[in-house]
Structures are given as structure tokens and as C-alpha cells.
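Sample 3 of the quickstart, ligand magnesium ion:
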Amino acid sequence: RAKSAGGNRAELADPEADARAITRHGLTTALPTALERGEFFIEYQPLVHLGDGSVRGAEALVRWLHPQHGVLGPDRFIPLAEHTGLIVPLGRWVLEESIRQARAWRERHGGQCGPLRINVNLSPCQLGHPGLVQDTVEILERAGVTPDALCLEVTESALIGADDDLLKPLRRLAEMGVDIALDDFGTGYSNLANLRRLPVSILKLDRSFTQGMQRFPADPVDLKIVEGIVSLAHSLDLAVTVEGVETGAQAEQLRILGCDTAQGWYYARPGPPERLHDLTLVDATG
Ligand code: C2E
Ligand code: MG
Ligand code: MG
Ligand code: MG
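Result:
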């Protein structure tokens, strides 16, 4: 009976799916007011140079402090925001807020600790939005921050099969000095030769590779794969960042393999911006 009544009826027959749908629906309708009310906030996770352990920058990760459900991670609401288009104003807010933060860090350090960069995630919808380049330029200018302080992270899957129209804004930004990183690299069905076509300067190796380095010494096949990616990346003048480093053994293994920068719980969990003020240099060499 449920089946013949169509998709909606079939869902009502499953109370759990129904509850999920209600939450999804509730969250979706609450998104616009959440942005107006300032319920979103950003946590920052440091990016650490594997060679000398210095903090080179941080990735901005958005969260939603929902009045009823508490803190929600991006996996709960980014897909909904993408679906409704709210990702465009939300993404613009994230960019503006994190650039403002980058400026505050730079001022605080008086340029003494090298450039502190901010990594901001970009969803495919933002990439296709005509205002992207102009918004970014304006936000940087308003904050008095140079483009080299910004790295935009785009997932590999967002760029697979991307035509030139989609790549054009990224090229423009790259020409201005904004770095483009290919996020979650290695999870899609990427055509490695395709890399040359993309205006990226950084590969962010997905956490699944880092997981293979859990034990020391790591699985030799995992080592070979990462070694191959690193050597290909470096031969194309791309830097390699690794995500999800949770142990010192992983950090050491990835450093030996030639990865440039690392990010993960071993160094710091994502946290409030003040956390980066006093972050001491981590000895990443073991
Ligand atoms: P991502 O860009 O790949 O971000 C890395 C994710 O790995 C973050 O999850 C981070 O908290 C988590 N992580 C960091 N270190 C470790 C570790 O050592 N171990 C483990 N197990 N996890 C670690 P988070 O914050 O839940 O973000 C999930 C995804 O949501 C991000 O993946 C990104 O794709 C997306 N996202 C976050 N903020 C934004 C945003 O402002 N805009 C857009 N479009 N997407 C965002
Ligand atoms: Mg990212
Ligand atoms: Mg990533
Ligand atoms: Mg990832």
C-alpha cells in the first residue's frame, strides 16, 4: 500500500526515516534565520610544516550552534545549504569572517612568524556562482589582506569533469595570488593527467591515506602509493598537505615520504581562534 501511494507515504511507514526527514526539513527551513541571527561560528585547525614543526596557517571549519540541537558539524547542514542555495551567502560569511581573523593574527604577530594563511572550503555551488571572484576581491580589500594569505579548498570531486567555464574563476583567483588546494585528494576517480589542467598548487591527501600510516612501519603498499603521489605532485610543482594525522608515528612516516604540511588531532583539534594565539611550535620530527 505504502509503495503504491508513492515516495512520501513509503517514508511515513518508517518512523526513523520520518524523524530524519523532519529534522532535515526543520534544519533546512531554519538555515536562513540562523545566518541572520549569527548562529554559525568558525573553528580553526592549524596546518603544520612537517619539516620544522612551525604553524603555517589554519583551516576554517564552520559549525552551527543550533538553539535546540546544540553544535552541529558541517556534514549535518552543508549539504542542505547547498541544496537550497544558502551556501552562497553562508560561504561568503565564512570567507569574510576567516579573512578578518587572518588579519587579526597577522597584526598580532607583527609579521614576525612568517605569513599566517587561512584555508577556506568552497562548495561546488559557490564555484559556479558568478559573484565569486568579485566577492573574494572585495572581502580581501576591505580587510586589507593580500591574496597570498588565502587558500581556497575545492574537492577533487567538484572539479572532476569541470569544463572551462567552471575553472575560469579559479584561474582568475590563482593569477591574483590566491592558492587553490585540491581537497580530499585520492578519494575520487581522478585522472592524474587532468591535474595539469587545474589551477591548483596544493594537493590535500585524504585522511584515508593517513589512516594507513597508523602503525610504524606502515603497510608497504600504502607507503608506495603515498610516495608515488608525493613524487608526482612535486614534479608538477604542487605542495602536499596531509589530513587526519592523529599520531606521531603517522607524522614521522609522512615526513619521511616527503609530505610538506600536516593537519590533524596530533597537532590540534579544530578550536576557537584564540587557541592559535599561543600555539607553540610542535616538534614534528619525532
Ligand atoms: P575537510 O575540508 O576535508 O575538513 C577536514 C575534516 O577532518 C574536518 O571535519 C576536521 O574536523 C576533520 N579532522 C581534522 N583532523 C582530524 C583527525 O586527525 N582525525 C579525524 N578523524 N578527523 C580530523 P569537519 O569540521 O566535520 O568538516 C567536514 C567537512 O565539511 C570538511 O571536510 C569540508 O568539506 C566541509 N566544510 C567545513 N567547513 C566548510 C565551509 O565553510 N564551507 C564548505 N563549503 N564546506 C565546509
Ligand atoms: Mg578542507
Ligand atoms: Mg579535506
Ligand atoms: Mg577530508
